[in-house]
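Example 3.2
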Amino acid sequence: MKKTLTILSLVLSLLGLASIFHDLSAQTQLEMNEEAYNNYKKADKELNLVYKKLLGSLNPKEKSLLIQAQRSWIKFRDSHCDFAAEEFDGGSIQPMVWATCLEEKTKARIEDLKASLQSRGL
């Protein structure tokens, strides 16, 4: 009886794991690529809101410096993520790696800009 319960418990555990993996494997690479890109676009929209809020609170010299910094940051982000994705050149995962990198770098930039807002009491 104890052996039967142990086997039953193991089977139920495996079924639980199988359902988790089924949910994960139900998504195609194309869908994962699209989801990663959509996550990046969402982060990019938030970045633009935070950037505009910060820009609106600055004097002319600070605005000019922030605009220059943002342009430089965009070039860095894009070239860094191009480099990160190049490792997977030609693979179906490459767009997901690229978009995920963009999202991560964008979220980090959002935090930088929020810190600037906070230091100005905004």
